[in-house]
Amino acid sequence: SPRLRLRAAWPMSNSGDSDGERVDTGKGAAQATVGTGTGTTRVVNVSYCTICGGPYEYCAWDPRAEECKAALKENVENVFPDVKDEAGLLELLERLGLEGNAVGGKKKKGGSQPKPDADGAAEAAGKKGKKKEVPSVLIELNNRNKKKFVTVVKGLESFGVDLAPAAKVFGKKFACGAALQKGKNGLPDQIEIQGNYRDELPGFIQDKYQVSMDSIYVMEDGKKVSLSEL
């Protein structure tokens, strides 16, 4: 029978002396004697599973939990005589962890996954539809005080060019003032060259920094225009 009888006995002495702990095991039962100084005796009946060999309280953690559950259902009247109907059996299985969302330490399959909310779906769709920006260089000519021009170069950093040294290279090449201007309010950094060098810059940038002409644009009448369209 899977039901074992465990007897725990404490000596009747009240002196508080103890000889330590002695555990004797026998066929179908175990007797434990502990020197606690109390005068009580308690008998505990423990039922063991016929499949995994452990107490039924531990079946839920065994890989054979489903087999343990089936065996318990067949023998429940002998093991747990207080269980009289299906409701009582279900309550017992839930208490033992053999009925519910997890059996044998693994979640049941087929559980529905939470659906993303509308905002999350819109954000995911936006990320999926957003195209990656292609690196490019933009050359823009600004007119200051009607007589002075400033040539602005943007986007060289997207080709791995360090802008501060590049500004010095432009100044030396065209024998003029050139400086790196840090972008503000989210605008990109840019190189400002004193004078009108819009026509000379594309070829120089191509030779010096190996930037393809197809990646170089100029501002023409307020519009970004490819060199091939000029």
Short description:
Mean pLDDT is 76; it is low at 1-36 and 106-111. The protein is built from five helices and twelve strands.
Characterise the protein shown here.
- With 230 residues, the chain is an alpha+beta fold.
- It contains five helices and twelve strands.
- The longest helix has 15 residues, at 65-79.
- The protein starts with a strand and ends with a strand.
Q: How is the largest sheet built, in terms of strand order? A: 9-10-8-7-11-12
The string of secondary-structure elements, in order, is EEEEHHEEHEEHEEHEE
What is the count of DSSP helices, taking H or I runs of 4+ residues? 5
Give the helix proportion (percent range): 25-40%
Mean pLDDT across residues: 76
Distance between the termini: 97 Å
Gross morphology is: rod-shaped
Query: If you compute it from the alpha carbons, what radius of gyration comes out, rounded to the nearest whole angstrom?
Result: 42 Å
Q: What structural category do the secondary elements indicate? A: alpha+beta
Strand residue percentage: 25-35%
In total, how many beta strands? Answer: 12
The biggest beta sheet is recorded as: 6 strands, mixed
- The residue ranges in which pLDDT falls below 50 over 5 or more consecutive positions are 1-36, 106-111
Provide tags for this entry.
230 residues; single chain; 6-stranded mixed sheet; alpha+beta; disordered N terminus; 5 helices; 4-stranded mixed sheet
Q: In terms of topology, how is this protein built?
A:
Blueprint: E1 3-9, E2 21-26, E3 29-34, E4 41-47, H1 65-79, H2 86-95, E5 102-103, E6 106-107, H3 118-129, E7 137-144, E8 148-154, H4 163-174, E9 178-181, E10 190-194, H5 201-209, E11 216-220, E12 223-226
Parallel strand pairs: 1-3, 7-11
Antiparallel strand pairs: 1-4, 2-3, 5-6, 7-8, 8-10, 9-10, 11-12
